[in-house]
Amino acid sequence: MPRAWTSSFRLSLVRQRRRLRGSEATFILLAALAGVCAGLLTIVQQLVAHGIQRLLYGVAINRLSALGSIHHPWRLLALPAGGLLLVMMTRTLRRQGRAPIDVVEANALHGGRVPLADTLTIAAQTILSNGAGASVGLEAAYAQVGGGVASLLGSWLKLRRSDLRTLVGAGAGAAVGAAFGAPLTGAFYGFEIVIGTYTPSAIAPVLAATLGAVSVTRAVGVTPYLIATTTGRTFTFPEYLAYAALGLVCALVGIFIMRLVTFAEQRLQRWKRVNGWGPIVGGFLLIPLALLSPQTLSAGHGALHLDLLLRPALSFLLIVLALKIAASVVSLSFGFRGGLFFASLFLGSLVGEIFAGTLDLVPLGVRLDVQDAALVGMAALSVSVVGGPMTLAILMLETTHDFALMGVVLAATLVSSAFTRETFGYSFSTWRLHLRGESIKSARDVGWVRTLTAGRMMRRPENAAQDATDVAEFRRCFPLGSTSRVVLLNRQGRYAGIVQTASAYDEAASLGAPIGTLAIHKDSTLLPDADIRSVMATFDAASADELAVISPDGAVLGILSESYVRRRYAEELDKAQRELFGEA
């Protein structure tokens, strides 16, 4: 009987997999399920991180960054203590030999496959860093767990590559949407940050996931992170110009922060004795910053609300901005795990308030509302750091319900995004991947390019000859018309070039000369792991019709023709285009 049950279960599973591949409605239901799971897990992570903060710092109602002062400075030893735990965790996980794969990298390079161990690692490190008070946000953990659970579901059901990438983007977006209580924000986060493009086939599943996540968090009664309300009004053209200028300022600040983090990381790597203990040293460096202003602790949600409510002096805002940037740089460069999304919202609000206050001091005839400027600054700076202009514009719309404000937010975010892409070219997550040697600039799927290698496309060489063979012997072995090309090998059996059969029958060819004297493309070869783009570049540089694929020691593995390579590339591009519009 148990065997019958097992067979029945397997048959049912196979049917469900087939239904998911062929039914859009079933896939939408799966995305909604992934969204509900992402929403629930977001709540769990919030409770764990804030529980750690309550345990370490004794905070109750107010968030950590909203404390007026640190009444018991000894509690700040939680920062280096948290760093010590991170060091121990990192050394334990170093046996893996690679960095954990996050959802952006997974969707760009690995077809949406996120190892469960990597998801748990990133989530644990981020929660520990935030709970200890480091200036990092929890969004890295939210998106990772949401996307990781979706990847686990999709891998278990053996979804197609494009469907799995969509499901991972839906799960990550659902988690972010649940954190803000904003389903459209989560959807655009999934599109712009994780999937890398807007696809008609992905709209319904992504929205189903984010609506499911936000619905479950509201049902539980969890308060979203960012709540701001404004009154409706209209904006003049000079105000639009002023907010566009604010977007430019935010882009400059965002680029400065990203480069400063990189500079600090590179400097730290040169200090061999300190590098292995970075989080502990960073924890001690954060203590004086926290004593100067508790607003430097954690991601800054409480401080954001506090500053919008109290509207402090311009000098105070400048000091907090400098300290918060320093805390974020120290936290990230010294090894604390987390993202800059939530921290950039706080930093953007400070830049916006400072911009509005400074503009009031200049007799230009334009005055900006401080709260409006803070909200626009949030969006513009976050766009520079995180990417996704529509994500942040929709976030402001969903939290303020102010369509007039969305106009100036869009103006500022588009200026910030365009300037950042033109002068810097990366968001923070893709910039860090770039520093590791990756070439991606978004989560757009480029993994198929890397899997389509010369080794996978080549065919085995059918004809080979020694380069020392004379032309007369070559003619006897390879009559005219029997083959168009022959691979030549030296005495050690290594690649020595390619000879066109017709060239051996040329009247000018000496019958006693070695055939190797007629060889071409001796120095133009392909390695088996070269991806299709580098293969095409090699063909262009060599002006060759066929090239040999050789191993690092020079042994011939196969032959590859340019016409076949370009046909395979066109086929894959067409396949990607059909998947983009849901026609695959």
Q: Determine the oligomeric state from the structure.
A: single chain
**CATH fold label of the largest domain:** Clc chloride channel
CATH homologous superfamily annotation of the largest domain: Clc chloride channel
Number of domains: 3
Structural class: mainly alpha
User: Overall 3D geometry?
Assistant: elongated
Portion of residues in beta strands equals under 5%
Characterize the biggest β-sheet: 3 strands, mixed
Integer average pLDDT: 82
Q: Give the termini distance in whole angstroms.
A: 40 Å
Percent of residues in helices comes to: 55-70%
- Which ranges are low-confidence, i.e. pLDDT below 50, for 5 or more consecutive residues? none
Number of helices: 25
Number of strands: 6
Strand order, largest beta sheet: 1-2-3
Gyration radius (Cα, Å) is 29 Å
The CATH class of the largest domain is Mainly Alpha
CATH architecture of the largest domain: Orthogonal Bundle
